[in-house]
Design brief:
By secondary structure, the protein is an all-alpha fold. The chain contains 16 helices and four strands.
Length: 422
Amino acid sequence: MAPTLKPLLLASTVAALLSGCGESTSSSAGENFADNKNDVVTSFDQKALLVNLTDNVITPTFEAFADKAQSLPSQIKAYCDLETAYDPSMQDDAAKQALDAAKQVSQDAWREAMISWQHAELMIVGPLLDNDKALRNDIYSWPQASTCSVDQDVVFFEQGNVNGTAYNIRNRSDKRKGLDALEYLLFNENQDYSCSAIAAGDILDDWNTRSEQLRKVARCNFAVEVASDLSHSAQTLINHWNGEQGYSQVLKNAGEPGNKFTTQTKAINEISDALFYMTEELKDYKLATPLGLFANSCGLEACPQEVESVYAKHSIENIKANIDAFEKLFLGGSSESNSTGFDDFLDEQQASDTKQTMLQGIANAKAAANALEGNLQSALTNDKASVTNTHTQVKSVTDQLKNDFINKLALELPKTSAGDND
């Protein structure tokens, strides 16, 4: 690293607003960011940061997810073909073993795709931000998913139309598709619909009276359709990201004439905004809400049904993947690499103490998540202290992120973080 030649002008002090669990609810941007006209005053090679994060962190993550998503339709169809042909009355042990094995393969394929996507969740930039995150939500709409809506679309898809209009999953709301819909379809063992009697509607009138096998087949067939749509969404992401006109080029060429970003700092700020997934979605939704630190469906107490992955029981794996992705984006690669990352930017701005604090915080958060045993539902019941510790360690990182990190790099808080109270 080159020595710092000119440190940033830091933001003026603002009063910390304390509430909830005592976390500061606001932070300020550096003065050089305030007029949005010039790059921050620094000798740090911001273009090198943008190029490395784009080429060696974000692009491989998106491509890895696309590869996983594109293999899902054939794997799920192989399972569904066996489910369709299976006759439970025949009591054929060999057929049942083959069916169970195929289902396990499709579930494992979902797990791999979900882990890959949980890395991408820390990299919501460009095409994943457009149109109120429409593409991101088509891929994974949590926490807004609706299993009742999925139940309805199983039958709409089966009959081939919605109120007389030909069924087209791409025209359906994001709550009815994506990885979250697939989780429900592949892992939920209760074949009754999940809607209230009022919400079910006429489309589900006879659903609960069908045989269990017929309901399994209908859900499985829709799972193939959902997987195909997911593969299409993943390819859409790659199409918008790669190529000469792709968003990866926009990030790498920030500050050049005609670019969306008039400065390199603005492009860096979009990537730094993505790190804040760890503040709201991870810390608040995935940990604080099921812990009862925020009101949930159980009141203000630990609530296993509020976890992210109810059916696959994959919540802990998701949390670990989020922390790993945060670390990779922060470092600009793996901990063994010497690639340009935000840690180098902090060093250049004479903020090595902030870097070290954040690295220790990340290590502590990883250790806490790795100490969780079983699934998050059981941990909330049997080892709430370990879940609470994971939240505490994640919060220590996000506290630094919202204060010293933003101020030392003269970046700006994302609007969604201004009122975070946990």
